[in-house]
Design goal:
The complex is a heterodimer of chains A (about 400) and B (about 200). In chain A, about 60% of the residues lie in helices and about 5% in strands. With about 400 residues, chain A is mainly alpha-helical. Chain A has a three-stranded antiparallel β-sheet. A three-stranded antiparallel β-sheet of chain A has the order 4-6-5. In chain B, strand 5 and strand 6 form a beta hairpin. In chain B, helix 4 packs antiparallel against helix 6 and helix 6 packs across helix 7. Chain B starts with a helix and ends in a 16-residue tail after the last helix. Chain B is built from eight helices and six strands. Classes of the chains: A mainly alpha (about 400), B alpha+beta (about 200). At the A-B interface, helix 7 and helix 9 of A face strand 3, helix 4 and helix 8 of B.
C-alpha cells in the first residue's frame, strides 16, 4: 500500500471512529465540547474535519468540505449553491435574507428556521473560504510558489493571486458597506445581524490586515522575479560570453552611440583641509589639541665605555692601479693644464713609458673617448684646458668622415 | 559635521551614498528638498546629483558632457573594462554558491567562511575561483588567500563593505547597481545575447 493510500485509509478510519459525533454535528449544526468528546474533537480538528464555531462559545461544527460531502450523501439541497466569488455569495446572502423576512412576515416559522440555517451555513462557509484562501495564498507566497518550478509559471501565479487579492479587498469593503448593513437593520433580521457580526464583521479587520500583508509579500516577490531574475540571467549569459570570447574588451565611449548616465560619474576629487592658524579661535583650538598630545617617550642615551688601544697589525690595503692608458691620459691632462704651450697627445703617448709599446691609433681613440666623457661630465680639469683636435683630412671637411690624428692641449 | 556637509563631501570625493554605506545620508538624500539643496550645491562646481536606476545609490555626475566629462567618461569605461571579467565571474560564482539569484544585489550578505567551505567541496567552483584570480592577476597563495584578494579588491573599489571583520562578513553596496547598469548597457550595444536557454527551465532554490 502506498503512503498516500495509507494516509487516506487512516483519515477515513478516524472519521469512522467518530461517526456519531460527525452525524450529530451535521444534523444539529454544531456540538458543545465536554469531557467525553474533547479528545475526539481535538483529533478531528487536527485533520481539519471540524472547526471551532465562532458563533457559539465552546462549540464545534463540521468543516465546509465535509459538510458539502454529507450534503451530497444525504441529497440535501442547498439554496442558491456555493460560489467561490464573494460578490456572488453576498448577492445570494441578500436573497436569502429577503426570503427569511418573507417567511417571518408570513409567519412560516419552519421555513424561516430553515432559511436561517442556510444563512448561517453560507456565512460560515464564506468566513472559512476566506480563511482558507488567505492561508493558501500566504503559504504559497512564503514558499515562493514552490509547487511550480519555473520562473515563468511563478510569475503567472503571483500575478493571478495579486489579482484575486485585489478582488478580495473589494469584497472586504463590501462586507461592511452600507448596503449590507442596511439589509440587516429591520427588526425581524436581528438574529441574522448577530450571525453576520460573529461570522464576518468580527473577523474583518484581521482579514484586511492579512490581505494587505500578503499583497505586500506578493508584490515584493513579483519585483524579485521581474528585476532580480533577469539580472541574474544577464550575469550568467555574460559570463558564458566572456568565457567563449576571451578577446572581448569594452570599447572606448566614442564607439558607442551615446554616453550613458552611469559613465557621467565624475572623477573623485581629493579634499584636504588645512587649519587656518591666522584665526584666533582656530589657533586656540589647535593649542588645546597640541596640549592633549602625549609627550614623546624620552629615549635614554647610552653611555659607551671608553675603549682600550689594541696592538694589532695595520689593515691590509690594496693599491688600485689604473690602466696604463688612463694613467698616462690623466698625467697628460694635468701637465697640459699647467702648460701654456700646446702639448701633442699623440707625441705624449709615443714617448710615455707605459703607452709607447701600445697601438698608437687605439691609444688616440681611447683618449678621445675619455676626453669626451670628461667634457660631458663637465669635469674640473677639462674646464681648465684648451683642446684642439687635429684632423688628418682637414682639407676635405665635407666628406662627412673626419679622422682625428692628434689632440693639442694647453692651459686655457 | 552636518549630514549635508558629510554627504556633499562624500559625493565630491566620488562616493556612492546608499543604505549600506551611509543609511542616514541615503535617507537624507531621499528627501526631495535635501536632494535639491545638494544638487544645487554640486551644480556650482559643474556637477549634479544623480542616482542609479532604482534610486538605490546616489552619486555625483558631470552636469554636462564637456571636455572634462568626456575625459571622465573614458575613465569610467576603462574602469568597467578592468573590473568586468573578474566581477562577472565572481558574481556568477556567488550566485552558484548561494543558489539564490538575489544574492548579488545591494544589501545582500557575503559570508567568506561559508563561501570557502562550499568552494572546497566542489571542484567546479574551485576552478572558477582560480579563473577569477587569474582575471585579477593574483595567482599566488592558498585558495583562501585568493578569495580574500578578490574580495579585498572589490572592497577597495567600493562594491563590498566589510560589516563584520571577525566573521569576515561583507555586504554588497549600492555601487553594484551602477555596475549592473553598465553591464546592461554593454550587452545591449555590443549585441551580447541575454538568452539563457537554461533559464526558463531553472527552478529557484
Amino acid at each position: 500500500m502506498s503512503t498516500l493510500e495509507e494516509s487516506v485509509t487512516k483519515h477515513l478510519e478516524l472519521l469512522h471512529k467518530n461517526r456519531g459525533l460527525i452525524a450529530q454535528m451535521y444534523s444539529s449544526g454544531y456540538i458543545t465540547r465536554d469531557d467525553d468528546n474533547a479528545r475526539a474533537l481535538t483529533k478531528l480538528q487536527q485533520i481539519r474535519a471540524v472547526r471551532i464555531n465562532a458563533a457559539v462559545e465552546n462549540t464545534y461544527r463540521l468543516s465546509p468540505t465535509l459538510n458539502r460531502l454529507l450534503n451530497e450523501a444525504t441529497h440535501r439541497a442547498r439554496n442558491y449553491d456555493i460560489s467561490a466569488d464573494f460578490g456572488e455569495q453576498m448577492a445570494r446572502l441578500i436573497k436569502l435574507m429577503d426570503d427569511y423576512t418573507d417567511a417571518r412576515l408570513q409567519n412560516r416559522i419552519e421555513d424561516s428556521l430553515l432559511i436561517q440555517g442556510d444563512i448561517d451555513a453560507t456565512l460560515y462557509e464564506m468566513a472559512e473560504a476566506m480563511n482558507d484562501f488567505l492561508l493558501h495564498v500566504r503559504t504559497a507566497a512564503e514558499n515562493n510558489f514552490g509547487n511550480v518550478t519555473t520562473y515563468k509559471e511563478k510569475e503567472k501565479q503571483t500575478e493571478h493571486y495579486l489579482n484575486q487579492l485585489e478582488r478580495i479587498l473589494k469584497a472586504l469593503s463590501m462586507f461592511d458597506g452600507e448596503a449590507i448593513l442596511d439589509e440587516l437593520t429591520p427588526p425581524e433580521r436581528e438574529t441574522l445581524e448577530v450571525l453576520y457580526q460573529s461570522h464576518i464583521l468580527d473577523k474583518l479587520s484581521e482579514w484586511r490586515s492579512r490581505t494587505v500583508d500578503i499583497i505586500h509579500v506578493l508584490k515584493t516577490y513579483l519585483y524579485k522575479i521581474r528585476t532580480v531574475a533577469p539580472r541574474a540571467r544577464r550575469i550568467r549569459a555574460l559570463q558564458l560570453y566572456l568565457q567563449k570570447h576571451p578577446e572581448y574588451e569594452v570599447r572606448a565611449p566614442d564607439e558607442y552611440p551615446e554616453i550613458p548616465e552611469w559613465a557621467y560619474h565624475h572623477e573623485p576629487l581629493k579634499i584636504q583641509l588645512v587649519p587656518d592658524l591666522g584665526a584666533p579661535n582656530i589657533r586656540d583650538s589647535m593649542v588645546d589639541i597640541a596640549k592633549k598630545i602625549e609627550k614623546a617617550v624620552a629615549v635614554p642615551v647610552k653611555t659607551r665605555k671608553p675603549g682600550t688601544p689594541v696592538d694589532e697589525a695595520p689593515p691590509k690595503a690594496a693599491l688600485i692601479k689604473g690602466s696604463p692608458l688612463v694613467v698616462v691620459s690623466q698625467r697628460l691632462l694635468n701637465e697640459a693644464a699647467r702648460s701654456p704651450a700646446p702639448i701633442s697627445a699623440a707625441g705624449y703617448f709615443t714617448l710615455a713609458e707605459e703607452t709607447k709599446v701600445l697601438d698608437q691609433e687605439s691609444c688616440m681613440m681611447c683618449f678621445l673617448t675619455l676626453v669626451e666623457k670628461q667634457i660631458n661630465a663637465n669635469a674640473k680639469i677639462i674646464r681648465r684646458l684648451s683642446i684642439q683636435h687635429v684632423a688628418k683630412n682637414e682639407y676635405d671637411t665635407l666628406s662627412g668622415n673626419v679622422i682625428i690624428e692628434d689632440v693639442l692641449l694647453c692651459q686655457r | 559635521m552636518s549630514t549635508f556637509a558629510r554627504v556633499a563631501t562624500a559625493l565630491i570625493q566620488g562616493g556612492f551614498i546608499c543604505q549600506i554605506t551611509d543609511y542616514e545620508g541615503h535617507q537624507f538624500l531621499t528627501n526631495s528638498v535635501n536632494q535639491g539643496d545638494v544638487d544645487q550645491y554640486l551644480r556650482r562646481i559643474d556637477l549634479r546629483l544623480t542616482t542609479t536606476r532604482d534610486d538605490g545609490a546616489f552619486f555625483a555626475a558631470h552636469a554636462d558632457i564637456d571636455v572634462e566629462g568626456k575625459k571622465d567618461a573614458k575613465k569610467r569605461f576603462t574602469e568597467v573594462k578592468n573590473v568586468l571579467r573578474p566581477m562577472v565571474s565572481f558574481l556568477e560564482l556567488v550566485m552558484r554558491i548561494t543558489g539564490d539569484d538575489e544574492s548579488v544585489a545591494a544589501g545582500q550578505v557575503l559570508n567568506l567562511n561559508q563561501m570557502m567551505a562550499r568552494i572546497s567541496e566542489n571542484p567546479s567552483l574551485y576552478l572558477q575561483l582560480r579563473q577569477t584570480t587569474i582575471d585579477i592577476n593574483t595567482k599566488d597563495g592558498s585558495d583562501r588567500e585568493r578569495l580574500n584578494k578578490i574580495v579585498k579588491r572589490f572592497q577597495t573599489e567600493g562594491y563590498l563593505l566589510l560589516v563584520n571583520p571577525e566573521s569576515e562578513i561583507y555586504m554588497f553596496t549600492g555601487r553594484i547597481e551602477w555596475l549592473m547598469e553598465a553591464i546592461e548597457y554593454l550587452m545591449l550595444h555590443d549585441e551580447i545575447s541575454e538568452e539563457d536557454s537554461e533559464y526558463d527551465k531553472r527552478a529557484e532554490s
